[in-house]
Specification:
Aldehyde Oxidoreductase, domain 4; 28 strands; single chain; alpha+beta; five-stranded mixed sheet; Aldehyde Oxidoreductase, domain 3; 3 domains; seven-stranded mixed sheet
């Protein structure tokens, strides 16, 4: 959409928050301090699984500067229970196939009776300095009996596996959900000419936000104050109120700048409750700052999904059905089932697959809990279907693009309902693929492959179509007030952790109201004025902000028109609103919006119109949209080392109406880099015997660097969402969703001459080198060379 103005909807406006953040004026969690604050250190278990008998705090409590050492027994002596579970999306039903209820684990902020993972908090030390707290933490002794640990779901559900929760009715298998039709799918498979199979593991990763978690807690006269970065303060407020058994009004939460979220910071972590508890116990503000190794141990992880699937095709290469088993490693606690709920609902990607049967299991292990990491199930689903399509192309001999064309959902078939009840409401899927191929120069790839081979390199190209269901928790609230001093005040519950809300929300409102962009301010992240809202996740922020602020804008203009008519001594029917002015059509009589706001509270205004010029809008029902697109990757591999160089990455995204292309491109860049990281290097590895995390630092957990990433080529295939007032679908997750299958498809293309059918993520140089050297073809070439 072309911009109506230099700052309105469609304008590629530089981010207004950047000046503040880049000049060091940001206010992140660790920037918050109090003059009289003290510090807390979390004492974390070195054992992955143990029966806990007691904690000896004697030596630690006697250390200089120590104010308190607290354990799970102290927590329970105060009558405090576990923290509340967040639950699951209300619009996607998850249930056990046998009808039994899903067991939701209690979340004790400090271990009680059982230790279930390495890094679980077993005690806290409060001291006058951070150094004193950490020094004393070394002297806490754990009295326990070490138990066998299990870190992978297949072993966890095998006979004789150690059980994590005695209360769980089905042992470590806590969920077995079924979607689609088994009978219809089995019938389709019985009529298939070709059946292709795929077994894979979408490995465990973590968000690694630039800013590690931190928190400052205060307690005064029955009220708690928490300052901690996150993706939504209302959730923190409500869950902490439940934790301490107080009214929500007794909990005040502030979250200012947040250095990255990605879903992993959507949750009320145990440390947040513990700093508040400690502050109440010692009578001083208590601060905690997580270091990077502690973050690897305690931040919730993502992905970790084992997949087994089959795709049935007829003689012409048309898809008939999909059978899929998903086994999710949910770790120690039921923090989130969103990935298992969401992923299977888009099992078919952008292809017409008439029937499916999908079994999804959730399994407890002695690992950190997994949560809704960027994309939450959709990246896993798109990886599955896009790899299956390439594998099917190789097995049938049908060109992989032609196979996609034969099965892609046609424009005139939309709205399209898939076999599990999800209806795609918009999208031009084949157009996105065509655009990606054009920008990639797909037809020239064979010549480039030959040229690379002459230089001793293996070149490959791959693409991946994708679709997402951007829904999230539906509750959201927006407030708008026109201030007499010439400002527009916006309040909303969703919160930025890098998504540029301070730029894009004022863009849409200034456009609609016809006021200067600089006159619109956004306030978020403080429960003193944010009344409700579900935070930032699932690409929901602009979608819902645009939807709700269009409502408040219309309401303010409607009431403002009636007030202006009174001031201009005219009929409301004769007053129009244009460019920030209420005017009588065909005359020069007009009054500005800000002047109307000034007069609105005056005694001369009729009583039914009198009052601040403000409006509120709220939504509590799901408003799903379906961002989609196609990403393509071209790369080269050094066959002697297995090292991959990404030559080009192209992204075509349908995010619906584009408010600010600079912002959406930035989100796509970040998402694609995260997807590249998972495809090539990131992996939260655990030792299978001890349950210890092996990737506990940047020496062990590889992250993409600037020189790993090419300049991206991006374009939009814009099809506005029909379900939202602004037409926005969401643009925060497409890169993460599409990049991994595009990259792996390109790697397999590069290695196809060696008979490589698939390579697992992360596709490290060693893994690629082994795939090449296990090939008889490569070994013959080496023998010929040396001979």
């Amino acid at each position: 959409m072309a911009a109506k103005s230099a700052t309105g909807i469609g304008a590629a406006l530089p981010r207004s928050e950047d000046r503040r953040l880049l000049t060091g004026a940001g206010r992140y969690s660790d920037d918050i301090s109090r003059p009289d604050q003290v510090y807390v250190a979390m004492v974390r278990s070195p054992h992955a699984h143990a029966e806990l008998f007691g904690i000896d705090i004697t030596a630690a409590a006697a250390m200089p500067g120590v104010l308190a050492v607290l354990t799970g027994n102290d927590w329970r002596k105060e009558g405090l229970g576990p923290m509340p579970a967040w639950g699951n999306p209300k619009d996607v039903e998850l249930k056990n196939t046998d009808g039994t209820p899903i067991f939701y684990t209690p979340l004790w902020p400090v271990a009680v009776e059982r230790i279930r993972r390495a890094g679980e908090i077993v005690a806290i030390v409060v001291a006058e300095t951070d150094d004193a707290a950490h020094e004393a933490a070394e002297w806490v002794e754990i009295d326990c009996r070490i138990l066998p640990a299990v870190v992978d779901p297949a072993s966890a559900v095998a006979g004789g596996a150690p059980l994590l929760w005695d209360e769980a009715p089905a042992g470590n298998l806590n969920l077995l959900d079924e979607k689609g039709s088994r009978d219809a799918t089995d019938l389709a498979f019985s009529n298939a000419v070709t059946i292709v199979s795929f077994v894979s593991w979408n490995q465990r990763v973590t968000g690694v936000p630039m800013e590690p978690r931190a928190a400052l807690g205060e307690y005064d006269d029955g009220k708690f104050l928490l300052e901690a970065g996150g993706q939504g303060v209302i959730r923190f407020k409500n869950e902490l109120a439940q934790t301490f058994g107080v009214e929500p009004a007794c909990v005040h939460v502030i979250s200012q700048d947040v250095g990255g979220g990605y879903g992993t910071r959507n949750h009320t972590y145990p440390e947040f409750a513990l700093v508040l508890w400690a502050a109440k116990r010692v009578g001083k503000p208590v601060k905690w700052v997580c270091d990077r190794s502690e973050a690897f141990l305690s931040d919730y992880a993502g992905r970790d999904l084992h997949i087994k699937a089959e795709l049935a095709l007829d003689a012409n290469g048309h898809f008939l059905a999909l059978r899929n088993e998903n086994i999710a490693n949910i770790g120690t606690h039921t923090v989130s089932y969103v990935p298992l709920a969401r992923g299977p609902t888009v099992y078919n990607g952008v292809y017409d697959i008439p029937t499916a049967h999908i079994l999804s299991s959730g399994v407890f292990t002695n690992t950190t809990a997994t949560a809704s990491y960027r994309g939450a199930g959709r990246p896993e689903a798109m990886f599955l279907i896009e790899r299956l399509v390439d594998i099917a192309a190789a097995e049938t001999g049908i060109d992989r693009i032609e196979l996609r064309r034969r099965n892609i959902i046609a424009r005139d078939a939309i709205p399209y309902a898939n076999a599990v009840g999800v209806s795609y409401d918009s999208g031009h899927f084949e157009t996105s693929m065509d655009m990606a191929m054009e920008l990639t120069d797909w037809s020239g790839a064979p010549a480039r492959k030959d040229a690379a081979r002459a230089q001793g390199k293996l070149r490959g190209i791959g693409l991946a179509n994708y679709i997402e269901t951007a829904t999230g928790y539906p509750q959201e609230r927006a407030e708008m007030e026109i201030l007499p001093g010439g400002m527009v005040d916006l309040v909303i519950g969703t919160q930025s952790s890098g998504q540029s809300h301070e730029t894009t929300f004022p863009q849409i409102v200034s456009d609609w109201l016809g006021v200067p962009y600089e006159s619109v301010r956004l306030r978020t992240g403080d429960t003193d004025f944010v009344a409700s809202g579900s935070g930032s996740h699932s690409s929901r922020s602009m979608k819902l902000a645009g939807h709700l602020y269009r409502q408040t804008t219309d309401e303010i203009i409607e009431r403002g028109t009636r007030i202006a008519a009174h001031l201009l001594e005219a009929s409301p029917a004769d007053v129009v609103f244009r460019d920030g002015q209420f005017e009588i059509e065909g005359t020069d009589r007009r009054v500005h919006l800000f002047d109307v706001a000034k007069e609105a509270t005056g005694e001369t205004i009729p009583e039914d119109l009198r009052g601040r010029l403000r409006a509120e809008a709220e939504i509590a029902v799901p408003l799903p949209t379906y961002p989609n697109g196609c990403h393509a990757t071209e790369l080269e591999i050094d066959p002697e080392t297995g090292v991959v160089e990404i030559i080009a990455h192209i992204g075509i995204d349908d995010t619906g109406t584009v408010i600010n292309s600079l912002v959406v491109d930035g989100q796509t860049h970040g998402g694609a880099v995260q997807g590249l990281g998972q495809a090539l290097m990131e992996f939260c590895a655990y030792d299978a015997d001890s349950g210890q995390l092996l990737a506990g630092s940047f020496m062990d957990y590889a992250m993409p660097r600037a020189d790993d990433v090419p300049s991206f080529t991006l374009a939009f295939n814009t099809v506005p969402a029909p379900s939202t007032r602004l037409g926005v679908k969401g643009g925060g997750e497409g890169g993460t969703t599409a990049a991994p299958p595009a990259i792996i498809n390109a790697i397999v293309d590069a290695l196809s001459e060696f008979g490589v059918r698939h390579i697992e993520m992360p596709a490290t140089p060693e893994r690629i080198w082994r795939a090449i050297n296990q090939s008889k073809h490569w070994n013959r070439k080496k023998e010929d060379h040396h001979g």
